[in-house]
Amino acid sequence: MSERLMVRVRKQIRLKHYSYRTEDSYCHWIKTFIRYHNYKHPEEMGNEEVIQFLTWLAVDKQVAPNTQNLAFSSILFLYREVLGRPLKDIDAVRAKTPQKLPVVLSREEVRKVMKCLQETALLMVQLLYGSGLRLMEVLRLRIKDVDFDHQCFVVRDGKGRKDRVTILPDTVIPKLKQQIKKAKYYYNLDKLENCHEVWMPNALAKKYPDQARSFHWQYIFQSNRLSIDPRSGKKRRHHFSDSHLQKQVKQAVKQAGIAKSVSCHTFRHSFATHLLEDGYDIRTVQELLGHKDLRTTQIYTHVLNKGGNAVKSPLSRL
Questions:
Q1: Half-sphere exposure (CA, 13 Å, Cβ side) for 146?
Q2: Domain map of the chain by residue range?
Q3: Which of 43, 96, 116, 181 is the right S-S partner for 255, CB 3.0 to 4.6 Å?
């Protein structure tokens, strides 16, 4: 496998300002594609080899639809952006996306889970449920993104690279202010070691190089240790670990005795469903969630219609 090719791939990804996670995923699937074809160079391959690879993923490996789509996107990026040969008319066996309704917790179940969480993890879950944030949106919140006066968050560069405004529940304000004080403590500590610079989006980092050392750009939910940035090699304090929060949520769900497949994203589903139950307009919910298409938000109306009182069973009339 040509190491020079992967260097070109990484360089092009960074020019496009994609996240490090996307870079890691794209490189993984491009390498897997090349290994599948016995290290044949992509320049010597085309549609047929791509179709074979995608079909193998769907039929033999039986990967999830989203996994196959990610692999496909990685290969499309390779040919379009790196090799300058956009692929067309790819007709492969695609993994089928099952039509699933989201898992939603009742209000009582939400309370039970929250009782089993403590401190920082509890506050983050309260924002997942109380503001309808995605997991990474919570973790990437910066000090400057909170507006206490208007009780809202500005979610920067969310899914689809869009900004939006969502609500800040008044019940979490005291704890959120305490969390910001904790971030200030870490900031002052890191300042002593000259490690208080935080990661910023590339364009802003170049335009405002001094802002990376300012307090208002710091993450609200910070890691408890410093780490090395894999791209720049700089020693920095990154945000709280997503896997650590996911583990704590799983443990809390188990402790609460809830027999549902619950993830961090379940609280966002519950946020939307409960707002609709309370009579809020679906377009308002769409804006708070940051959905581009109203049909995405409408899935929660299906959850409501499937609920207990929507249809009476004939058994109850016997």
A1: 24
A2: 3-82, 107-302
A3: 116
